[in-house]
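Encode chain A's predicted structure.
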Amino acid sequence: MNAVRVLIWLTLLSSTAVAQKNSPAQPTTPDAQEQLGTQYFQQQDYASALTWYRRAAEQGNAAAENSIGWLYQNGWGVKQDYGEAADWYRKAANQGEATAQCNLGWLYRSGLGVGPDYGQAMSWFRKAADQGDVKALSNIGFLYENGLGVSQDYAQAAEWYRKSAQKGDADAENNLGNLYQNGLGVTRDYAQAIAWYYRAAGHGSALAQRNIGSLYENGFGVDRDYAKAMSCFQKAKEKGSPEAENEIGRLYYNGWGVKQDYAEAAKWYRMSADRGNLHAQSNLAYLYLTGKGVPQDYAQAMSLARKPAEAGISDSQVYIGWMYESALGVKQDYAEAMNWYRKAADQGDAQAENDIGHLYSNGLGVKQDDTEAIGWLRKAAAKGNSQAITNLLSLNQQGRIPGDTAEPPPVGVVGIVLTCDAKATSGCVSPPQPILQPEPEFSKEAREAKYQGTCLVALIVETDGTPTHVRIITGLGKGLDENALAAVKSWKFKPAMKDGKPVATQIAVEVDFHLK
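Encoded structure for chain A:
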């Protein structure tokens, strides 16, 4: 037994001796030390990488200085420290190291460890871009797109993104696709948008994969296809996109391409929310607020809505306003409700505009003021908010809209509170359907001024499909309102149906005036 033990010990000793004999000499030149540091970095041995990077940096190696900055920026092998990262990037950048110049510019752009200082960011990005740094080119495009430190210029953004995209940068490819999708700085072109998104997705961009899904979901430039949208979102999720998880939740919430399932929607929203996606947090807050797919819990709804609301997400701002207005889990406070509604309205949120109009109309927390109420409701109605349309029709019936001399609608006219669908087949209303819609004429004054837009027109569709009590809710002027009224009065409808019988119904329609 002892002999065996000695034999094993001798074998191990011999193996160790061979390893020591064959180990390479430690590098002494800064380039070799930096290369060894990079080998350790690739093996995720960040402590050893830092050791060799420091030795190379002590001899002025710029690549090593940049790499030390990268370790500090990400907290790999050291405590995360953006200020320390900036110091190391600056040492390398001052030696002309392009990657370090771009990295330093990014810290200035993001306000991490320095700044934020968009002027400094642009200065460093341009120095790196002059050396052909792909990320710097993309970052300059980002500054122009968002007007950070420069005047917002989508055409310039597109130019810089294109330079970077042509070198294969996935972020630039995705951003260029977004400009084409929205017609910013370039002519709107969904074919170009999806082509750039596919290139970016091929280079690993989860965001681009998600954007492709959104095009299929909305039918922009492609046939609407929820199954393809879901497939794209799933691929983006596999690449780590919390945004895609939120999108999957939305498909389940709406029953688009899948069976409607609020609990499944909640699962996906929560998955995304736990990874910091603010829109998912907002969506999950709504489920807790309404008790869809989860137990109704106002405290949880408020907790989830608070962070996205403070970050400027208007949906959450409206939810918080609603909770304060209706005393849901909090003490009723109309002033606080108004405060949150105004934050959302400042971003053009139609629901918030309606809710402000509602507070003014009823004198809740503010002095009752029909003029203010009508102004806010018209803003919301012009964006298609159905509640605002209903509220305006109600004010009109009460004779509270100045200048509207139309006779009040007759008794028995219904409003569409519940629309018939697969889940609601009784006690509901099937809305009127237009069967003859002569187009309105463009007025000479509006045509000469190249003036265009949309009129919102209220009317009653009688039981025989004839429009009556036609009046403007939101007008355009320049003779277009009169033409809109004349056109709608000549329309013919299939009447609304309730419990199998035609009923006279109040509705609102949009009349578009757009120059061809």
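The chain has 24 helices and nine strands.
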